[in-house]
Design goal:
The chain has helices spanning 3-28, 43-51, 124-179, 184-242, 435-439, and strands spanning 59-61, 63-79, 83-86, 98-105, 111-112, 117-121, 244-246, 251-255, 258-259, 268-269, 276-278, 282-287, 292-299, 311-316, 319-331, 345-352, 364-381, 386-388, 393-400, 403-414, 418-423, 430-432. With 445 residues, it is of the alpha+beta class.
């Protein structure tokens, strides 16, 4: 008699008792059809409770085979060595980020050489502003020249006045020396003349210092005004120059896709003639399309399995019939800045190999990364392994004769379909391949 036949006979003989046990367990443990309820039964009772509901495919022998583990995640194609073309033009207004609008832009996909014109921003307003600014700069320069001339004139006038005062003192002293002995009155008069000349000299020196300092202060102010106006003119000249954007390297032009808001969505800014451009906005990249990569982000548990050099297969949405090979070239050791509080996201970059003729940056796709493979090992379906949270161990249900036993197991590599069994099972053991599915067939409490 087949295994299925034997199970059916056993089920008919003991179905009433088995269902009685199950109803009792369900009443005392009303947690749905939890497989761990079976652990409260003896191996024989466990078989009796399940026999009526088992199908042929529910029990399978443990066999050797290959366990392959992969991680599948979506991402975006990008250039390996992109040369960014960014707007360095300053915002037009203090409280705005808008710098200008695009007057002309080169077609996407165009091959360019380093130095070729790729974008022309509208500089009409800047051209009008620089005309006015040049007038102000010229006026400031004229004022500066006048101040320089004035200070020269003041210095010369002061030199002459000072010398005349010194001569007056000298002449009074000589007259005193020559006629001072004629009489007391004459001597007193001459002494007063000397004192008067000396006081005049002192006054000239005092006025000279004040007048010269005033002229120097005026000159300093005009220098600052001229430098300020000249600086504004040079800033406008730089802004006008920055309205013309050139290719930073040889390559193909690819428009940059920029989304406002979070990295998980938002309205995309258009890169087109007539559209506004923000200060610091990347408009395009110029790149060599012979080197491309796929950037993905993995949840915090996955990066421990992903290592540099692991192989991958890449499917691109726009090219459904093509499969590209690749390998992991970078794994971040720190989570991204835009990770969620409860889920850390790590960047992984996969180098794409092969013929990349039809691939372009910003195409979406998915990568299947091979994170491990073990050949000729004992394996069971992943769903066959359960977790005993109380004992903190993994186990399988194994059919031994007319009983179903609990068998603790030690696991190796976990794949997408199968999991490696290092200890606890032997080749040929019949395990319950999906206990949870079987439990769903049992009647409720």
């Amino acid at each position: 008699m087949s295994t299925t036949g034997k199970l059916a006979v056993g089920a008919m003989a003991t179905s009433i008792a088995a269902l009685g046990w199950w109803a009792s367990i369900s009443a005392t443990n009303p947690a749905g059809n939890d497989p761990q309820k079976l652990n409260l039964l003896t191996p024989a009772e466990r078989m009796e409770a399940l026999a009526k509901f088992l199908k042929k495919e529910d029990l399978q022998p443990v066999a050797r085979g290959t366990v392959s583990a992969t991680i599948i995640e979506r991402g975006s194609v990008e250039a390996v060595n992109p040369h960014m073309v960014q707007c360095v033009l300053r915002a037009a207004k203090p409280n705005s980020t808008v710098a200008s609008t695009i007057r002309w832009i080169i077609d996407e996909g165009t091959k360019v050489k380093k130095g070729d014109k790729v974008v022309q921003l509208d500089d009409t307003a800047l051209q009008e502003r620089i005309k006015d600014q040049r007038i102000r700069t010229a006026e400031a320069q004229a004022a500066l020249l006048k101040a320089k001339t004035t200070i020269s004139q003041v210095e010369e006038e002061l030199r002459i006045d000072l010398r005349l005062a010194e001569i007056g003192v000298k002449l009074a002293a000589l007259e005193l020396e020559k006629h001072g002995g004629k009489g007391a009155l004459d001597k007193q008069i001459l002494e007063l003349k000397v004192e008067k000349a000396q006081l005049f000299l002192d006054r000239v020196k005092h006025k000279s210092t004040g007048k010269l300092e005033s002229a120097k202060a005026t000159l300093a102010v005009n220098k600052l005004m001229h430098q300020k106006e000249l600086g504004r003119e040079r800033e406008l000249e730089s802004d006008i120059k920055n309205c013309l954007m050139i290719a930073p390297a040889d390559g193909i032009v690819i428009y940059h896709v920029h989304s406002q808001g979070s990295s998980f969505g938002g309205r995309q800014k258009l890169v087109a003639e007539g559209e506004g451009v923000a200060e610091g906005q990347t408009l395009m990249i110029v790149t060599d399309l012979s080197k491309l990569q796929l950037r993905i982000r993995l949840l915090d548990l996955n990066p421990e399995q992903v290592r540099k050099g692991q192989k991958a297969h890449i499917h691109v949405d726009a090219l459904p019939n093509d499969v590209f090979s690749g390998q992991v070239s970078y794994v971040a050791d720190q989570p991204n800045g835009d990770s969620f509080p409860v889920a850390k996201l790590y960047t992984v970059i996969i180098q794409i190999n092969g013929d990349l003729t039809h691939l372009l940056p910003h195409m979406s796709g998915k990568a299947t990364i091979s994170v491990g493979e073990r050949a000729n090992v004992l394996r069971v379906p992943v769903k066959a392994v359960l977790d005993d949270k109380d004992k903190k161990e993994k186990y399988c249900y194994v059919k031994v004769g007319n009983e179903i036993h609990i068998r603790p197991v030690q696991l190796g590599l976990k794949g997408n379909e199968f999991i490696e069994i290092e200890q606890g099972l032997t080749e040929g053991d019949h395990v319950l391949v999906d206990p949870k599915a079987v439990m769903k067939r049992l009647p409720g409490p």
